[in-house]
Amino acid sequence: MYDEILLPVDESTTETAVLYHAAEFANATDADLTLLYVADTDVLSLDVLQQDVIDALEEFGEEVLEDTEGVLESLGVSPRTDVVQGTPAQTIVDYAESYDYDLVVMPTHGRQGLSRALLGSVTEKVVRLSTVPVLTARMREAEDLVFPYERVLVPVDGSDPARHAAQYALDLASVLDATVHVLSVVNDTHLGMDVGSSAVEEALQAAAEETVESIEANAADAAPDVDVRTHVDRGAPARTILEYVDDLDVHAVVMGTTGRRSVARVLLGSVAEKTVRTAPVPVVTVPRPDA
Fold first, then answer.
1. pLDDT tens digits for range 78-87
2. Please, how many CA atoms are within 13 Å of residue 291, restricted to the half-sphere of its CB?
3. Is 115 exposed, middle or buried (0-12, 13-18, 19+ CB in 10 A)?
């Protein structure tokens, strides 16, 4: 399932649990790990930048990679390293796609509050644009990320991206011997109390139950070794997902994304983006196959 993992790094990476998590992931799946440093030459036009400035950016990147490589080698991982020039987010996305990486591992900043967390960050742009699955994990001091995952949560809504993500989660759970919890949330936050809204709510409830049941049935055929448990709940989807992460002591969340290639076309505030910004556990966002 994983042969090649890409870990973009900067000067803060060596001090985070994300680095150790990536090493554990690579060791457990016998994957090769590549460290990538992007020398951000988008600050000024390349026509303006002096060659010695570019050289200094790349030299700093080499120093960062050397430090990060040393930490990984102490953890039993011998990574490849690369320094490239470009705009960080787009360069990471293009690099992962061009060299057929199976997973990109990215940190988030773990801030509280949607208005402060991640808006416009490199990580969020990579999640939006990537055609490769992206594992995001919060950078918080004194916080350990559990691995291997024992419980994986998969929020689904009946869409093709969600079904694809569910199959991805089943494959991952099969590798790690994890339990998969499939959750469908009926968003009743905008429904009123009249008869019409009650009928809509019943229809949404039935559709949610059908969705999780179909994924459970598919798992029985496609991944009979995986323990699958289904849940249907009501409320605001992003908040309900976080509640289930806490209540079930989930170690990772797997979610589908539309995988659109233009930032302007991706809606801010989607359930996936809210979950990436706020989840206290790693989130693997899986783009649709035709993205």
1. 999 999 999 9
2. 25
3. exposed
